[in-house]
Amino acid sequence: MKIVLMTTPFFFVEESQILTALFDEGLELLHLRKPDTEPVFSERLLSLIPESYHRRIVTHDHFYLKNEYGLRGVHLNGRNLELPDGFKGTISCSCYTVEETEARRRKMDYVFLQSTDFNVPESREASWGLLEDAAHQMSEKELKKVYVSGGITLDDLPRLRSLGFGGAVVYGDIWNRFNIYSQQDYRELILHFRKLLK
């Protein structure tokens, strides 16, 4: 099962160092999501990450970055619904229901099945119900193209793996371990990422 990391929606000083360290640790796939930001800031961030890791990055915005920086692909979303003309590369998108997931995964290399209720403790079981429905309705091969997103933590990974999903998208479980406003080191974040990979 793949671990996919979603960036914060904002930029911060240590970001390139942290992302490079995570790639060094074995991060396979980073989704660069910076809505409502100027492309020059994404360009700067990418220029600070070693070129050898660019093939592990998918962008949610400013799709020209894919070719300019040799990125892996693009992620379609409400802000960016259309592929650039003649696009070649990995294509993904976010889905919010099992039906949408089944319909869209055929045209995508993989899809995120977004379960926003995972972030609300009282709704976690309902979210698991959605995921179990998806697991029962899709074949093992189909599930490998579905990555679960929305408040996923280390504790969720064994259950997701047992259901047969191809990956999990982490966000808060990583970024909540680092305070961008204090000059702390990011050792705790790296140590937790190692646990996620195991």
From TrEMBL:
It is an enzyme of class 2 (transferase). GO terms for molecular function: thiamine-phosphate diphosphorylase activity. Its EC number is 2.5.1.3. InterPro entries: Aldolase_TIM, ThiamineP_synth_sf, ThiamineP_synth_TenI. CDD domains: TMP_TenI. One of its GO terms (biological process) is thiamine biosynthetic process. Pfam families: TMP-TENI (PF02581). Residues 17-171 form the Thiamine phosphate synthase/TenI domain. Keywords: Transferase. It comes from Alloprevotella rava. This is Thiamine-phosphate pyrophosphorylase.
